[in-house]
Specification:
This protein is of the alpha+beta class. The chain contains three helices and eight strands, in the order αββββαββαββ.
């Protein structure tokens, strides 16, 4: 899981795909942190992305850097604990202008289970289950 998080951090921006009804929705994300042995992301409860995850928590994300790309698929679970939110925001202080662990909007989600595959044009794919 650490390798997955490090790859995503190196990308800086990755793209998260959800489903809205029967249509895919993709948007840029930048948070990827490990807390209590889970890979976490962060968003706002008021955003469409969160509403879509509430309806269907199966997501996929994809990032690319230096001729390699990663695809991560899995189920996201909500963690409403203040400690998880604080950890995310402490590790991403640039978000503190928009989010606070005590507000009613900040939400962190973790991969309950996931599978990541790192690809390149020159190497065999590497599969990481977490």
């Amino acid at each position: 899981m650490k390798e997955v998080q490090e790859f995503l951090k190196k990308c800086g921006i990755y793209y998260l795909a959800t489903v809205d009804g029967n249509k895919p929705k993709v948007r840029p994300f930048g948070t990827a942190e490990i807390f209590e042995d889970h890979l976490y992301i962060q968003t706002g409860k008021k955003k469409d992305v969160f509403k879509q995850i509430e309806k269907n928590n199966n997501v996929e994300l994809c990032g690319y850097i230096d001729g390699k790309w990663i695809r991560v698929a899995g189920n996201l679970q909500v963690d409403n604990r203040k400690e998880a939110k604080k950890d995310m925001l402490d590790k991403n202080p640039n978000l503190r202008g928009m989010y606070n662990e005590n507000d009613d909007n900040t939400i962190v989600l973790y991969f309950e289970s996931g599978i990541a595959t790192i690809y390149s044009f020159t190497e065999e794919p590497k599969v990481i289950n977490f």
